[in-house]
């Protein structure tokens, strides 16, 4: 399912127009991205948790030259599915 299919599904289930459903989906995604980028944690009970995690600096290898390189520390977005979500997928 891509973004436009998600918008259509939300519009169908909620009874909203596609235009209103698109606004709702886009605003929700933008809010999640902005909050996680700011270091906040978003917990939606029954669905899951969006958060920012830190990766430490680590050693790697350049695949072209096989020379050792250092991969710098970074921050990444992470999602952990909630119990209800996991149970629904497992059925």
Architecture overview:
- The protein has one domain: IHF-like DNA-binding proteins (HU Protein, Chain A, Irregular), CATH 4.10.520.10.
- It is α+β, with helices and mostly antiparallel strands and about 90 residues long.
- Helix content is about 45%, strand content about 30%.
- The longest helix is centred in the first third of the chain and has 20 residues.
- A hairpin with a 3-residue loop joins β1 and β2.
- The protein contains 3 helices and 5 strands, in the order ααβββββα.
Q: What share of residues is helical?
A: 40-55%
Q: Biggest sheet, in brief?
A: 3 strands, antiparallel
The succession of helices and strands, N to C, reads HHEEEEEH
Could you name the CATH class?
A: Few Secondary Structures
- Number of extended strands: 5
* C-alpha geometry: elongated
How far apart the termini lie comes to 20 Å
Q: Name the average pLDDT.
A: 95
Q: Strand order within the widest sheet?
A: 1-2-5
Strand content: 25-35%
What is the CATH third-level topology name?
Answer: HU Protein, Chain A
CATH architecture: Irregular
CATH superfamily annotation: IHF-like DNA-binding proteins
Q: Give the count of helical stretches.
A: 3
Number of domains: 1
**Any low-confidence stretches, pLDDT <50, length ≥5?**
none
Radius of gyration: 19 Å
The helix-and-strand class reads alpha+beta
């Amino acid at each position: 399912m891509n973004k436009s299919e998600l918008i259509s599904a939300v519009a169908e289930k909620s009874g909203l127009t596609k235009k209103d459903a698109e606004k709702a989906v886009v605003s929700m995604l933008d809010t999640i991205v902005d909050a996680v980028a700011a270091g906040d944690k978003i917990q939606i009970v029954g669905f899951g948790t969006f958060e920012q995690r830190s990766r430490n600096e680590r050693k790697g290898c350049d695949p072209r030259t096989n020379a050792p390189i250092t991969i710098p520390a970074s921050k990444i977005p992470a999602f952990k599915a909630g119990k209800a979500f996991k149970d629904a997928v497992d059925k």
